Amino acid sequence: MAAHGKYEAIVIGASAGGLSALTTILGALPASFSLPVIIVQHRYRDQMNLLEEILQNKCKIQIRQVEEKEKVEAGIVYIAPPDYHLLIESDNTFSLSSDPQVSFSRPSIDVLFESAAATYRKSLIGIVLTGANKDGAAGLLAIKKAGGLTIAQSPEEAEYPYMPQAAIDKGAATLVLTLKEIQTRILNC
């Protein structure tokens, strides 16, 4: 995979309030953005392609739902399908799992983040956004321990502050930033 600077991939976790936060961050990315962005957004099983369609209408970069064994490619925003855990394998392909829920969620942010940390190590940026549970805190810590850059959305700004606050409380966030600051950081990485 072609590296952009020192980073090879970005993983983002969001839950309640995530659509607005994701739109702010992804809406700033040009169609030519050179990193893959891999997202777990908690959602219901029956929302099969709704999130992808809404985001694609508001973003220039290509957005699509992950398919089993698909290769991770630069310049695409990948979104975990509802009701499946999303993992990144060591050969830079995606794997989907219907294993039990983690932190009451499937897809789980922790599952994605932990597999991405093992694959990308220090070449990974992990971001935890708004949400009403603690999913993402353990995964963000795994990214930090692997040497990656870890970011939590400022709880004061988050629509639902519990999820970024859980990551901060766990010592997992290297940076605590507003959505606009996250946007700038990603564009300049």
Would you count the extended β strands for me? Answer: 9
Choose one word for the global shape.
globular
CATH topology: Rossmann fold
Structural class: alpha/beta
Approximate strand percentage: 15-25%
CATH superfamily: Methylesterase CheB, C-terminal domain
Distance between the termini: 16 Å
Provide the succession of SSEs. EHEHEEEEHEHEHEH
What is the topology?
Blueprint: E1 9-14, H1 18-26, E2 37-41, H2 50-58, E3 62-65, E4 76-79, E5 85-88, E6 94-97, H3 109-120, E7 124-128, H4 137-145, E8 149-153, H5 162-169, E9 175-177, H6 179-187
Helix pairs in contact: 1-6, 3-4, 4-5
Characterise this structure.
The chain is α/β, with parallel strands linked by helices and 189 residues long. It has a single domain, classed as 3-Layer(aba) Sandwich (Rossmann fold), CATH 3.40.50.180. 30% of the residues lie in helices and 21% in strands. It contains six helices and nine strands. It has helices at 18-26, 50-58, 109-120, 137-145, 162-169, 179-187; strands at residues 9-14, 37-41, 62-65, 76-79, 85-88, 94-97, 124-128, 149-153, 175-177. The strands form two sheets. The chain has a seven-stranded parallel β-sheet, with helices on both faces. Strands 5-6 form a two-stranded antiparallel sheet. β7 (124-128), α4 (137-145) and β8 form a beta-alpha-beta unit. α1 (18-26) packs parallel to α6, α3 runs parallel beside α4 (137-145) and α4 crosses α5 (162-169). The longest helix has 12 residues, at 109-120. The chain is globular, with a radius of gyration of 14 Å. The mean pLDDT is 93.
Question: Care to give the gist of this entry?
Answer:
With 189 residues, this protein is of the alpha/beta class. It is built from 6 helices and 9 strands, in the order E-H-E-H-E-E-E-E-H-E-H-E-H-E-H. The two termini are 16 Å apart.
